[in-house]
Fold this protein.
Amino acid sequence: PIRYIAGSLFCVQLLLGPVLAYNGVNDIQYFKYKMQVPEAEYFILALPAVTLMLLGLHINSRLRGEKVNVPAIRQYVEANPNFMYLLIGIGFFASFFGSAGGSTFSYLFYILSGCKFIGAFLVLIGSKQLKPLPVILVFGSVITASLAEGMFHDLVTWALFLLAYVALKYKPTNPVKVISAIAFTLAIIVIQQLKETYRASIGEQGNAAGIEAFDDALRKSQAAGALFDATSMARNTVRINQGFIVTYVMTNVPARVPYANGAELWQIIEAAILPRFLAPNKLKAGDNSIVNKYAGFYIREGTSMSLSALGDGYVNFGPIGACIFMFFFGLIFNLLLIQFYNYSKVIPIVLVFLPLVFYYPIRPDTALQTALGHLVKTTMVLYTIYFFWKRALTVSPGKQKTALVSQ
């Protein structure tokens, strides 16, 4: 459900977060994270922009997206029982030895490290009998890494995709879906509330990272009554409010910095498409220079923020142009998803790779050069794998017909 996940996250970050900000949270928020323009002025831009983005995302998709052919995937897994374990092995190898490849190949290793999740998803939906060990191994590794680093983006995003594949296999009822969604949301709130305490515990206090340190942070927050404290939770809503950065852009452009008229967008496209040996001065992932220039406030080194797709559209083309830009932004995702679906008719497992391709693009807080760069590079890697492994990946017409009839 890539379209629905992406659309939901953009609505949360650009609509729901700002709604909360304008309805009380702004009054208690840290001054730098407050909305900088009146509510009507912001939503006159954001509402049509997000609506057009959703239109571009869903146009010609019949509002149902790409259906995963589970019988065909099971048939492929039965015919190639080692393939999913090979992907898991490649993923762990790339995770452990990626740093040895140097900066030139570091992103390639990063992409390949995500293959372990794709292998786990294939184990989940491609096996008739439940095989929990590979899934536990893969997701145990991301839990361990998240606790070690004190960063939980990977864990939350991959857990979201895991829930999607569990739903794909077991087809839960609507009440189960609602309960799962509430539980998932509460888990995210708990992580967000405990994150700073946990980081202080493993950083300043020198405690060993892990479940015990996280549990200790949980106990301290409960004892202090801060876990579900309304004020603390309200301040943490900045994590679901990308709109505040957009309002900084609205006040800074064109009042202090002129519209880029496509120049900034070209920088982003250059960073996404061209390799560094052809564009040695292109933007780097996490480069804050664009935010510092167009949002008008300084971000210290080590902190990552982005203008968001809406902010980039406004910087380049103004308010009306930003809305049109958001339509084409959603349309790019849509056309790529349709292309993947067309390939899935002869390579059923290709749709299982979609979480890897759209891992960054579905997140509104990701810099546009990072999102588009990930989209381009990951698609190129998958096409290269297909080019050299075409016979092994393609399902013959007879088997494909049998799988479709079975579905």
